DNA sequence: AAGAAAAAATTATACGATATATGATCTGAG
DNA sequence: CTCAGATCATATATCGTATAATTTTTTCTT
């Protein structure tokens, strides 16, 4: 009996491919404002040798950026940077590039606002549709958070996992699709908070309160608990940013 | 003086590229369940000549699918279909492919649920942050809807534009990023409704009510009005589906 | 002079052949 | 049983050339 290959999870590539590295490099220049909307890239041949890669690699990189709405290319007209408006900002890659490039205050505000729109409602739905397995998963995640604390990678991962589980419990695929984006948001803001030394308020009581509401099927309270949780994270982040 | 090139809007390509056609074809086979999660594609060379395209084109097509989380490819292991869980379901292309491939009842339910999560909150935010220009845009969209009715393409486009404007009025980029996805959802469900002959209830009163709430800055009422609007669309769609 | 049609220039797109690097699988030693 | 190394199929990367699409320019017609 061989170990069953995991079809469930798509493992990330261990080594990044060249075309992806090029795509990321171009994307960072775009989100960083170095290449503003409307910017036309040099002709393919010339651009490729300037970057020191083959044309095929450059083309594949552009293909990735095109599929995320960041650029568009047409014969004769060339390849140009699209207006920010048409980017797929919720795409996990775009979101990650954006944050790595230094998220602005407005962007962080938008992120928390999105969380306040999505997660409280998700908590409400989770309370109505939960099942045993997901509840134990949530409990385990909380236990790990408690044991490792948010100062450790494991603890932070458990925090993110907990929020993912709430979105999963909605049993709505589209809500679950938001989970990657929201996880990215949590990871980045947690990183900001951990930069300042003095530890922020312990968020475990709020997490446990939320869990209890979901476990008891108390939808309205679950919503309120999630709002409280996000507000706490928001204010902690703002405090951390001010230093 | 030449006409200023529009940087604002990224015009869609007039003629679809080969790689995009291939990507769409593969994507349809995937979302249609013909190629289930875990399916491994034949070796690149072989697969390319089977489809009658060059390997470059096939590679670029896979690059698009990879960037949307639908497949992942590694040397030696080949290219395989990812679990649905890791697809970027909110990506406009993925959503469109999904719908073109015949959306299931559960999927439509998820779509309306997403709208109920996002749009009422957006209406609330819009009421608080609106400006004159957006209000006149909304009024114009409603006027067009009234004049052309939902039976025409123009009328349907105006309906979608109205909902986009509400999301724009939130002044939150991430919420605006959801607008393409939601527009796709509206377009597809409106198409379903228009398939049955007897016209559904006229939704214009609800639209005007929503507009008034936003114009007056009445956030709580705007939320309620949006909920009413979506509920109406939902029940009309369900009725249409039952025939 | 004005407008339409044709030609040219420019660019992305498409193709196929070749070389490289990667990682899954097998093999053997410990 | 475990782990290090060899192997080999496969994706990855590069190159040269040919094609198609679209804007710009020119030419022709009116």
From TrEMBL, chains A, B:
Keywords: DNA-binding, Transcription, Transcription regulation. Coiled coil: none annotated. The keyword DNA-binding applies. It comes from the Bacteria. Residues 16-84 form the HTH gntR-type domain. InterPro entries: GntR_C (IPR011711), TF_FadR/GntR_C (IPR008920), Tscrpt_reg_HTH_GntR (IPR000524), WH-like_DNA-bd_sf (IPR036388), WH_DNA-bd_sf (IPR036390). PANTHER family: GNTR FAMILY REGULATORY PROTEIN (PTHR43537:SF44), TRANSCRIPTIONAL REGULATOR, GNTR FAMILY (PTHR43537). This is FadR/GntR family transcriptional regulator. It comes from Novosphingobium clariflavum.
